[in-house]
Specification:
- This protein has 17 helices and 14 strands.
- The protein is an alpha/beta fold.
- It has two domains: about 5-205 and about 375-405, Rossmann fold (3-Layer(aba) Sandwich); about 205-370, Rossmann fold, CATH 3.40.50.
- Helix 2 (about 50-65) packs across helix 17, helix 10 runs parallel beside helix 11 (about 275-285) and helix 10 crosses helix 15.
- The longest helix has 17 residues, at about 380-395.
- It is globular.
Length: about 400
C-alpha cells in the first residue's frame, strides 16, 4: 500500500528536529495547555474480547510515545486489574450495579459530566459492547475528541445482537475499525455509520493464537491435561444468552452417543461455568470435562481434533489454525466461514453426529483460512497502533493514513 506524505508532514518533521522534540504525541501551540488528565488515547473497555486487545495495545502505544488511559467496566475491570493506566468507571461516579449485565444501562448526567471534565483525550477508542461506551464517545466527541469504534467480532454487525444497545445510543463516531473487508459493505448500510470513515484494522486475537500454537507442544499439553493420547479430542467453547443453553444441551446429548471421544468444555469468560458443569453432571458424561479457566482457550485448542461452538469468535480463531470447526446453531445462522465452506453448521442432534463423524472419523486435510480469504490484514496490532499514532500526528497538524480506508458503496 502506498503511503502519501503531505508537504505539511515534512514541515512539521523539520520543526520537531529543530526543537529536539522526540514524541509524536507532543501538542502544538494550537492545542489546549496540557494538564495531568490530558491523554493522547483513551480506551473504553467492557467485554472480554475488546479488553484483551486493548490490553495488548497499551505497550504498543507506549513504544510510540503515546500516553494512554483505560476506562473499564464489566469484564474489563478484571482484565485490567493490574494495569496502572486503568480506572474503573464505578470509581468516578454513580454506575448501576446491574450495568455489567444490562448493555442498555447508561450513566446519569452528573456522572457523565464528571468523567468528561476529569479526562481530556485527543482520541477515544471504544468497544461496541455497551451503551455506556457509546454514551461516553458521544460526550467526548462534543468536546472535540476524535472518536473510533473498534468492532472485534467476525460476524457482520447487522447480525450481532449484542451491539444493538450501542447502535441505538451512538450519535456517530468519526471512524469504525473492522476486522475484515467482508464486513465493510454491511456496516456502511447502517445509519449509525452514515458519516463514519470505515477502516480495516484486522483483529490481534488471531495473531495471539498464532503465538500459542507456535510455542505449545501438543503431546506435552495432552499429558498435562490428563488426556489419552490415542483418543480424539473435541473442544467445545462456551457462550451465554437465551439460546446458548439449548445448543449446549443438544451437543452434550450427541456426545453421550460418542463415549470414545474426549470432550473439553471451556466456558465463556463472562460466566462461571456452573451451567456447563450442571449439564454434564445431569447426563453423567464421563468423557466430558469442564475446564476452570486456568488454561486459556487457545492453549486447549492446540490438542483439539475438532472445535465446536455456538457463535463464539473462537470458531474463527480455531479455523485460522487449520482446525475443523463446527457451529451448532439454527439453520438461519451463518457467517463468512460457513458461507465460504470453511466451517460446518449443525442444527440438530443428528446433524451434529454426522458432522463430528466426518471431522473425527473421516478427516480430510484441513483448509488453512488465510487472511486474504477473509480480507483480514496481517500484523493488526501494529497497524492499529500505527494508525493511532498517525491520527494523533494529524491532530497536531500533519500525518498520513496507515489503514486502508474503504469507500463503501450502497447497493
Amino acid at each position: 500500500m502506498k503511503t502519501r506524505l503531505s508537504l505539511s508532514f515534512f514541515v512539521f518533521l523539520s520543526f520537531l528536529l529543530m526543537t529536539g522534540c522526540s514524541s509524536l504525541a507532543q501538542q502544538s501551540k494550537s492545542d489546549p495547555a496540557p494538564t495531568s488528565d490530558t491523554v493522547d488515547i483513551l480506551l473504553i473497555a467492557n467485554d472480554q474480547g475488546e479488553s484483551q486487545i486493548f490490553k495488548l495495545l497499551l505497550p504498543e502505544l507506549a513504544r510510540r510515545n503515546l500516553s494512554a488511559q483505560v476506562l473499564t467496566m464489566g469484564q474489563a475491570d478484571t482484565v485490567f486489574a493490574d494495569q496502572k493506566e486503568a480506572v474503573q468507571l464505578n470509581t468516578l461516579g454513580s454506575v448501576s450495579e446491574n450495568a455489567a449485565n444490562d448493555r442498555t444501562q447508561q450513566l446519569d448526567k452528573e456522572t457523565l459530566e464528571r468523567i468528561a471534565t476529569q479526562v481530556r483525550p485527543a482520541i477515544v477508542v471504544i468497544g461496541m459492547s455497551h451503551a455506556i461506551q457509546a454514551q461516553l464517545a458521544n460526550r467526548f466527541k462534543t468536546a472535540g475528541a476524535t472518536t473510533m469504534a473498534f468492532y472485534d467480532n467476525f460476524d457482520l454487525i447487522s447480525q450481532s445482537q449484542y451491539v444493538v444497545p450501542w447502535l441505538e445510543t451512538t450519535t456517530g463516531v468519526d471512524e469504525l475499525l473492522l476486522p475484515g473487508h467482508y464486513q465493510a459493505v454491511d456496516a456502511g448500510k447502517l445509519p449509525a455509520f452514515a458519516n463514519s470513515q470505515i477502516s480495516i484494522s484486522g483483529n490481534p486475537a488471531l495473531e495471539q493464537w498464532d503465538i500459542v500454537f507456535l510455542i505449545t507442544n501438543k503431546a506435552q499439553e495432552k499429558q498435562l491435561l490428563a488426556l489419552d493420547p490415542k483418543r480424539p479430542v473435541i473442544l467445545f467453547t462456551g457462550g451465554y444468552g437465551d439460546e446458548y443453553e439449548q445448543w449446549l444441551q443438544l451437543f452434550l446429548q450427541a456426545m453421550a452417543e460418542r463415549p470414545d471421544l474426549q470432550v473439553l468444555i471451556a466456558p465463556h469468560p463472562k460466566t462461571d461455568g456452573q451451567l456447563e458443569r450442571n449439564a454434564v453432571a445431569a447426563l453423567k458424561l464421563a468423557n466430558a470435562s469442564v475446564r476452570d479457566g486456568a488454561t486459556p482457550t487457545a492453549q486447549l485448542a492446540t490438542v483439539a481434533d475438532l472445535v465446536v461452538t455456538h457463535k463464539s469468535t473462537t470458531g474463527f480463531q480455531a479455523a485460522w489454525q487449520g482446525l475443523p470447526v463446527l457451529f451448532v446453531a439454527s439453520n438461519d445462522y451463518t457467517n463468512i466461514l460457513i458461507d465460504a465452506g470453511l466451517a460446518s453448521r449443525a442444527s440438530s442432534w443428528q446433524q451434529m453426529l454426522n458432522q463430528i463423524h466426518r471431522a473425527i472419523d473421516q478427516p480430510k486435510r484441513p483448509e488453512t483460512v488465510s487472511f486474504n480469504m477473509l480480507g483480514v490484514p496481517e500484523q493488526s496490532l501494529q497497524r492499529i497502533a500505527d494508525h493511532l499514532q498517525t491520527t494523533r500526528f494529524q491532530i497536531v497538524g500533519a500525518g498520513s493514513p496507515i489503514l486502508e480506508h474503504l469507500q463503501v458503496e450502497e447497493n
